[in-house]
Amino acid sequence: MQKTIKFSDQQSVLDLFGPRDIFLRQLQDVFDIRLIARGDTMMLRGRREDVEACFDVVSKMQRLVENREELSRRVVADLIESSSASGTGEAGDSGDGVSLKRRCSGKQLVPRSEGQAAYMKEIASNDIVFCIGPAGTGKTYLAVAVALDYLKKGDLNRIILCRPAVEAGENLGYLPGDLRSKVNPYLRPLYDALHDFMPREAVEEYIANDLIEILPLAFVRGRTLDRAFIILDEAQNCTVGQMKTFLTRLGGSAKLVVTGDITQVDLPHEEQSGLIDVQGRLEGIEGITFVKLDERDIVRHRLVKRIVSAYQRGTGP
């Protein structure tokens, strides 16, 4: 399906796209469509429900632009939320106002277990959330989805994704290539999660524009992380000192999710896991919550649940 919108002049089209096309990307992240500008005309192409919903939002944005009213990511997000797409469920909603439509596949992402639903609710309600559970429970995947939702709505300005590069240790300098190529193998799962929600070129553009930052844990030292949604993945491989350093980087307007599996600690035996240690130190503090997932929340291959259960028993079947 195709729809066309006529503007008063070409500048109005550029204003609607926003600086560096930021509002255009915001629309394309939610609606599975193509927006094509030719002079003072904009065309929307895609599935009927997406085109009609986006047309409704763009028409409202057009009125604001031509009335010389200011657009912002927050304004655009509010228009999207109130559009007809919200009524159809096309944008996806977790039940707590979290829009989780998967941009690359058009599928709707919803929690697939009670534990996952509780996890997402705790993220919405707390500034710091620790999620501990076995592989395959969606710890990182859901955190990335919610982070992208916060970014698209303009609630926070950027996403910061961190992981300890435990195996590299002090030997990063001996690996071939520049710094990015040295640490990328340890950060690959974070890229994979992003690519499941956004096209590869969009991920690269967000990174180039500093809307998404992916970095090893060691690179956070000395920084203040503010107006950001921060995810620390594989936190079981943080030492106690690293965990303290990381948690004290949090700015006044940030949200933090820490994920890990305390059964898969790769630290040397003499080092205690910061994720294990932090539970006794911070549990009970208002604004900080701990979510525990288990094999019932595993959403990978059906055999993964049995594998996890077998290892938890410590013996064979």
Write the layout of secondary structure elements.
Elements: E1 2-6, H1 10-17, H2 22-30, E2 33-38, E3 41-46, H3 48-66, H4 73-81, H5 84-88, H6 114-125, E4 128-132, H7 139-153, E5 158-163, H8 179-197, H9 200-208, E6 212-216, E7 228-232, H10 240-247, E8 255-260, H11 274-282, E9 288-292, H12 302-313
Parallel strand pairs: 4-8, 4-9, 5-6, 5-7, 7-8
Antiparallel strand pairs: 1-3, 2-3
Structural class: alpha/beta
The profile of the biggest β sheet is:
6 strands, parallel
Return the average pLDDT rounded to an integer: 81
Q: Overall 3D geometry?
A: elongated
Number of helices: 12
Can you write the helix and strand succession as a string?
EHHEEHHHHEHEHHEEHEHEH
Q: In total, how many beta strands?
A: 9
Trace the largest sheet across and list its strands. 6-5-7-8-4-9
Q: Rg, please?
A: 21 Å
Strand content of the residues, in percent? 15-25%
Helix content: 40-55%
Low-confidence stretches: 84-97, 99-107, 168-172
Spatial gap, N to C terminus: 55 Å
Summarize the structure.
The chain has 317 residues and is α/β, with parallel strands linked by helices. It has 12 helices and 9 strands. Helix 10 (240-247) crosses helix 11 (274-282).
